[in-house]
């Protein structure tokens, strides 16, 4: 809901928009006497029962119970209307009596019984049938927030509509203590192509628009003045960030320092050849890890550098010997998931083309295949338990630990012994990705025979692990020539998308983004965005 | 007629309990986003709210208007793919 509706609601007090927000009221209220009735109500209709102590308490209890039902996604029955039994629609839980109705019957119910308030069974928001609108009452919002936090163990606090709105005092404070950055310094700037360096540009753009990496550099995470390392990639990265966020230039930037540092650190990058964006990303992340005080041995103890904190997850590999059912487990840190685009059984038989068969492949299908059980070849595994026998074994990869920023590579390039080729199929990918089904926990549950491994149902308290799309890197053209462009969300969290093509930065629609033939995908965990 | 309603509610119940409904909804949303419908509709909503034309209507009026206008603009391809997906799910139920 757009905040503007708050303004338009006739019942809202006539004060300015900001002071009308419940948050502002809450802040003005002295915390000591919080039992005193609040000054602002969601609407005039809800004001009446809430002002009456007995009725008010009843409503509050009812609302608390109802939100618990509404917010618990495993309680499917909250979706059924008592009257017409129709399920597939949004339903309202009555606030004054224990009944559930579909919108139509709820309206009738509100007229008949004079129960004017319904609770949306999916969001827990309050709908007033007199206003014909959703109302946001400070007291009830408080109850809902408490329930949400209690249900999710406090880990994933959902933000309230008003949490993001600073009070007038806050604004004043911010204004007087801020020197404004140049108004054009919003991080929206392109890179000059310095001779087939678009592979570098797209990778840099994906880091610049990654909120975690950006916040690290903008908060002086790496200080070039105090840095004594030679060929420091992090210093070069710092320079890019200050160019993008502290100057008002909008022309393309030539990251000369970054390019030469790359050349010095990695001989094979030197020269003006097109490189693989994914290889460069790996190289860059490794360098940034090393120059930001990362551990030299990440195997033994977890690294605390920004790169590891943002990108690294863990992949579990279980190899099961078919002979003795002995399971060998290994857990490895990974900075990305590389997904095969081909269906496995087809791979050996017909190498070149397997596209265009049936429906478009989806990212979820690729992930499902990536985490499915795979038969190992005869000589690939020797069981330590029943040694001597050459047994058939199966292997399964699952995600043991999900990273805050999930990088996915779609393996479009295949490098054979004689020639390399590019798979140019479109792979469908979503704006929101639920990673729950691919986790070790979910896979184990599915194996243990619980019939339902639906996205949410069986994993109470653990998930869903929702990710939002952050950046997309696209390769166009032939394998050895070709060009890279990328898409990123404004500031890594806005609703607007931008298209980055070397020094050109243009506004993009959701459609442009989703219809691209992605090579690299960056997703960021929901609770941070 | 009542038999039809009973069958319907049975199908609905299974859709919901198996988690298929959630999956279908997710697919539908993905398709709508990919086709640009989602963003267009969101813009329509924003415009309507900004223009102030539905000052007294609130959420209800907005949904009514938007539903009327945007339902027709769902691309045929999306419609087809959804029907196929739903069909597949329902067929799976009959066999199971």
From TrEMBL, chain A:
Which residues does the annotated region (Disordered) include? 1-32
Q: GO biological process: any one? A: proteolysis
Q: Which UniProt keywords apply?
A: Hydrolase, Metal-binding, Protease, Thiol protease, Ubl conjugation pathway, Zinc, Zinc-finger
The USP domain sits at: 189-526
Task: Tell me which species this is from.
Answer: Tuber magnatum (white Piedmont truffle)
Question: Low complexity bias located where?
Answer: 12-22
What protein family does this chain belong to?
Answer: Belongs to the peptidase C19 family.
In terms of SUPFAM superfamilies, this protein maps to:
Cysteine proteinases, RING/U-box
**Mind telling me which GO cellular component terms the entry cites?**
cytosol; nucleus
Spans traversing the lipid bilayer = none
One Pfam match, given by its short name, reads zf-UBP
Per the record, what are the reactions this protein catalyses?
Thiol-dependent hydrolysis of ester, thioester, amide, peptide and isopeptide bonds formed by the C-terminal Gly of ubiquitin (a 76-residue protein attached to proteins as an intracellular targeting signal)
This chain belongs to which protein, by name? Ubiquitin carboxyl-terminal hydrolase
UniProtKB/TrEMBL annotation, chain B:
The Gene Ontology biological process annotation of the record reads: chromatin organization; mRNA export from nucleus; protein transport; transcription elongation by RNA polymerase II
Q: Could you tell me where this protein is found in the cell?
A: Nucleus, Nucleoplasm; Cytoplasm, P-body
Keyword terms: Activator, Chromatin regulator, Cytoplasm, mRNA transport, Nucleus, Protein transport, Transcription, Transcription regulation, Translocation, Transport
Q: Name one GO molecular function term.
A: transcription coactivator activity
> Pfam families from the xrefs?
EnY2
Q: What are the annotated GO cellular component locations?
A: DUBm complex; nuclear pore; nucleoplasm; P-body; SAGA complex; transcription export complex 2
Q: Which domain of life is it from?
A: Eukaryota
In the UniProt record, does the keyword Ligase occur? no
Nuclease as a keyword of this entry, yes or no, is no
- Purpose: Involved in mRNA export coupled transcription activation by association with both the TREX-2 and the SAGA complexes. At the promoters, SAGA is required for recruitment of the basal transcription machinery. It influences RNA polymerase II transcriptional activity through different activities such as TBP interaction and promoter selectivity, interaction with transcription activators, and chromatin modification through histone acetylation and deubiquitination.
Instruction: Write out the similarity annotation.
Output: Belongs to the ENY2 family.
Query: Which PANTHER family does the entry mention?
Result: ENHANCER OF YELLOW 2 TRANSCRIPTION FACTOR (PTHR12514)
Complexes and interactors: Component of the nuclear pore complex (NPC)-associated TREX-2 complex (transcription and export complex 2), composed of at least SUS1, SAC3, THP1, SEM1, and CDC31. TREX-2 contains 2 SUS1 chains. The TREX-2 complex interacts with the nucleoporin NUP1. Component of the 1.8 MDa SAGA transcription coactivator-HAT complex. SAGA is built of 5 distinct domains with specialized functions. Within the SAGA complex, SUS1, SGF11, SGF73 and UBP8 form an additional subcomplex of SAGA called the DUB module (deubiquitination module). Interacts directly with THP1, SAC3, SGF11, and with the RNA polymerase II.
Record-given protein name:
Transcription and mRNA export factor SUS1
**Lineage start:** Eukaryota, Fungi, Dikarya, Ascomycota, Pezizomycotina
């Amino acid at each position: 809901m757009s905040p503007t509706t708050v303004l338009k609601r006739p019942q809202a007090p006539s004060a300015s928009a900001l002071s009308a927000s419940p948050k502002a009221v809450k802040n003005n209220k002295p915390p000591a006497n919080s039992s005193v009735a609040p000054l602002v109500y969601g609407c005039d209709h809800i004001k009446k029962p809430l002002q009456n102590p007995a009725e008010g308490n009843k409503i509050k209890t009812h609302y608390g119970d109802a939100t618990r039902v509404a917010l618990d996604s495993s309680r499917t029955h909250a979706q059924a209307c008592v009257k017409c039994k129709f399920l597939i629609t949004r339903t309202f839980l009555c606030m004054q009596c224990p009944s559930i109705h579909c919108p139509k019957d709820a309206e009738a119910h509100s007229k008949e019984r004079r129960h004017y308030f319904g609770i949306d069974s999916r969001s827990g928001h309050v709908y007033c049938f007199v206003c014909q609108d959703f109302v946001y009452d400070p007291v009830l919002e408080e109850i809902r927030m408490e329930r949400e936090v209690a249900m999710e163990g406090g880990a994933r606090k959902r933000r309230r509509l008003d949490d993001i709105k600073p009070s007038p005092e806050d604004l004043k404070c911010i204004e007087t203590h801020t020197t404004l950055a140049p108004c054009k310094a919003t991080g929206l700037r392109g890179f000059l192509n310095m001779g087939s360096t678009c592979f570098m540009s797209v990778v840099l753009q994906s880091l610049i628009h990654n909120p975690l990496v950006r916040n690290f550099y903008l908060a002086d995470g790496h200080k070039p003045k105090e840095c004594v390392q030679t060929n420091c990639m992090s210093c070069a990265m710092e320079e890019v960030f200050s160019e993008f966020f502290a100057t008002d230039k909008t022309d393309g930037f030539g990251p000369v320092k970054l390019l030469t540092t790359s050349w010095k650190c990695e001989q094979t990058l030197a020269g003006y050849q097109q490189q693989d964006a994914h290889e460069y990303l790996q190289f860059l992340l490794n360098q940034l890890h090393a120059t930001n005080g990362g551990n030299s041995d990440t195997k033994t103890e977890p690294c605390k550098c920004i790169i590891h904190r943002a990108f690294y997850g863990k992949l579990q590999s279980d190899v099961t010997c078919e002979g003795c059912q002995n399971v060998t487990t290994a857990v490895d840190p990974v900075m990305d998931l590389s997904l095969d685009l081909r269906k496995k059984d087809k791979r050996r038989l017909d190498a070149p083309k397997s596209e265009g068969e049936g429906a478009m492949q989806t990212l979820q299908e690729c992930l499902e295949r990536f985490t499915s059980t795979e038969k190992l070849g005869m000589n690939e595994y020797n069981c330590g338990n029943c040694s001597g026998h050459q047994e058939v074994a199966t292997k399964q990869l699952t995600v043991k630990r999900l990273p805050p920023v999930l990088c996915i590579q779609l393996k479009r390039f295949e490098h054979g012994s004689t020639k390399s080729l590019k798979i140019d199929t479109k792979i469908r990918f979503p704006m929101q990705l639920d990673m729950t089904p691919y986790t070790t926990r979910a896979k184990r549950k599915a194996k243990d025979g619980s019939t339902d491994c639906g996205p949410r149902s069986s994993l109470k308290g653990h998930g869903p692990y929702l990710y939002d799309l952050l950046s997309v890197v696209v390769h166009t053209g032939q394998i050895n020539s070709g060009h890279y462009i990328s898409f990123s969300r404004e500031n890594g969290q806005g609703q607007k998308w931008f298209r980055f093509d070397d020094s050109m930065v243009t506004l993009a629609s959701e459609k442009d983004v989703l219809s691209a033939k992605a090579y690299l995908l960056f997703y960021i965990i929901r609770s941070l965005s | 007629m009542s038999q039809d309603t009973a069958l319907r509610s049975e199908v609905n119940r299974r859709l919901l309990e198996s988690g298929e409904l959630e999956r279908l909804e997710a697919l539908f949303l993905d398709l709508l986003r990919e086709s640009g419908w989602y963003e267009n509709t969101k813009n329509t909503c924003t415009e309507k709210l900004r223009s102030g034309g539905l000052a007294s209507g609130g959420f209800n009026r907005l949904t009514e208007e938007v539903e009327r206008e945007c339902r027709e603009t769902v691309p045929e391809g999306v419609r087809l793919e959804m029907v196929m997906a739903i069909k597949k799910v329902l067929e799976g139920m009959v066999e199971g």
